[in-house]
């Protein structure tokens, strides 16, 4: 997944730069130009990566790893498939590239962490930065929220229905990830002080 995330980040970045995409407001290019097709293709790969991530959830269920199955995990992975399916069906490219690019970058770091953790318990001393990974995910969702909020208010030739869907979705992710951060890193510290 590190390799796929790195490939997608590279493709989102390079294709957006070659196409002179605006990072604030980018309409969808529905043409068959090579760059429009390249952007649509990386959006498809991003959707496919979400299918892989949901499969991971199914494997947790089949292996009865109930401690790894949380509402946040199921909600996030289950809804990402719907969101990106509708994204590639109706607005492949356009400003949705921004979220795919940002999420791919975060996933390079996140899956690197998981790869190190999978090596074994002796790697634990190198995994002190999990808390910061959660912070990075939260920052990502806040950036997406601001980006989408800007596009709801600006004159941008990108469907407001998609902007509203993404805005609402990002609100839920900020709430859920903030709760996870609080439960995982702050609540226990408060208990230890008492």
UniProtKB/TrEMBL annotation:
The chain crosses the membrane at residues 44-62, 74-92, 104-120, 132-150, 162-182. One of its GO terms (molecular function) is fatty acid elongase activity. The keyword Ligase does not apply. It is found in: Membrane. Keywords: Fatty acid biosynthesis, Fatty acid metabolism, Lipid biosynthesis, Lipid metabolism, Membrane, Transferase, Transmembrane, Transmembrane helix. Its EC number is 2.3.1.199. It comes from the Eukaryota. It catalyses: a very-long-chain acyl-CoA + malonyl-CoA + H(+) = a very-long-chain 3-oxoacyl-CoA + CO2 + CoA. Pfam families: ELO. GO terms for cellular component: endoplasmic reticulum membrane. It is a multi-pass membrane protein. GO terms for biological process: fatty acid elongation, monounsaturated fatty acid; fatty acid elongation, polyunsaturated fatty acid; fatty acid elongation, saturated fatty acid; sphingolipid biosynthetic process; very long-chain fatty acid biosynthetic process. Belongs to the ELO family. PANTHER family: ELONGATION OF VERY LONG CHAIN FATTY ACIDS PROTEIN, FATTY ACID ACYL TRANSFERASE-RELATED. This is Elongation of very long chain fatty acids protein. It comes from Pleuronectes platessa (European plaice).
């Amino acid at each position: 997944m590190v390799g796929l995330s790195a490939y997608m980040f590279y493709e989102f970045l390079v294709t957006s730069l070659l196409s002179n995409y605006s990072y604030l407001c980018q309409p969808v290019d529905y043409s068959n130009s090579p760059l429009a097709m390249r952007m649509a293709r990386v959006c498809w790969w991003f959707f496919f990566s979400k299918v892989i991530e949901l499969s991971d959830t199914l494997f947790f269920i089949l292996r009865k790893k109930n401690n790894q199955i949380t509402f946040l995990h199921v909600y996030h992975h289950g809804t990402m498939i719907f969101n990106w399916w509708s994204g590639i069906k109706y607005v492949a490219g356009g400003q949705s590239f921004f979220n795919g690019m940002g999420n791919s970058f975060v996933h390079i770091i996140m899956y690197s962490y998981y790869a190190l953790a999978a090596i074994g318990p002796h790697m634990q001393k190198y995994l002190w930065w999990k808390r910061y990974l959660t912070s990075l995910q939260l920052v990502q969702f806040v950036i997406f929220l601001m980006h989408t909020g800007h596009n709801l208010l600006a004159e941008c030739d990108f469907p407001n229905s998609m902007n509203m869907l993404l805005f609402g979705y990002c609100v839920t992710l900020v709430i859920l990830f903030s709760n996870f951060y609080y439960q995982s890193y702050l609540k226990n510290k408060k208990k230890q002080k008492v």
